[in-house]
Design brief:
This protein has one domain (4-197): Maf protein. Strands 1, 2, 3, 4, 5, 6, 7 and 8 form an eight-stranded mixed beta sheet that branches. The protein has helices at 12-22, 48-60, 97-107, 174-180, 182-197, and strands at residues 4-7, 28-31, 66-76, 82-83, 117-127, 133-144, 160-162, 167-168. It has 198 residues and is of the alpha+beta class. It is globular and about 55 Å long. The protein has five helices and eight strands. It is 29% helix and 25% strand.
Length: 198
């Protein structure tokens, strides 16, 4: 039976990135929804790694496929690393990101650039069919700009600026973003583990 990877997400933007980066593994990569899996997952971990593993184990409990799950978010140093693991749930899960981004910019009003340091963090957990488990972490450092910019990204991308490129994450091409992003780094690290272990 051909091995499949099921990624514990319903986010179509995320699935696009995941498929592009993991395409070299030569396996079918499905979201939970595409695989017809519906499990209730309570993300009650205190770190990105814990939450990713909670998701991966929940899906692994109902299928023998290779399960990957990620937990990612934005840490803003000046705001005590908020929104952190609550990035998706910050101000409510159904709140549009334009409103979330505006709220964060408002909270940073008047704060000098040197104190607006931030990073995107992505932890990816894997549960293999034989129940071996792995986690990896990828990060990208930057700062929170004064205003949103760019149309390419999603989530907090428009307010997250990358110093050396002098642009926001939402102004990057998909290729450049995959190369630099927290998720891109974590996915490549996980891809290397899967190549070796499978």
């Amino acid at each position: 039976m051909k091995k499949r990877i099921i990624f514990a997400t319903g986010n179509t933007n995320k699935m696009k990135e995941i498929r592009e980066i993991l395409s070299g593994l030569g396996m079918e990569i499905l979201s939970m929804k595409e695989a017809g899996i519906c499990v209730d997952i309570e993300e009650n971990g205190t770190t990105f790694e814990e939450n990713a593993m909670i998701k991966a184990r929940a899906v692994a409990a109902v299928t023998d496929d290779i399960i990957l799950a990620d937990d990612s978010g934005l840490e803003i140093d000046y705001l005590n690393k908020e929104p952190g693991i609550y990035s998706a749930r910050y101000m409510g899960e159904d709140t549009p990101y334009e409103i979330k981004n505006r709220a964060l910019l408002d909270r940073l009003w008047g704060v000098p650039k040197a104190k607006r340091t931030a990073r995107f963090v992505c932890a990816i957990a894997a549960v293999l069919p034989d129940k071996r488990e792995y986690t990896v972490r990828g990060t990208i450092e930057g700062y929170i700009g004064e205003k949103p910019a760019g149309e390419n990204g999603f989530g907090y991308d428009p307010i997250f600026y990358i110093e050396e490129l002098q642009c926001s994450a939402a102004e990057l091409t998909a290729e450049k973003k995959n190369e630099l992003s927290h998720r891109g780094k974590a996915l490549r690290a996980m891809r290397d583990i899967l190549k070796k272990e499978l």
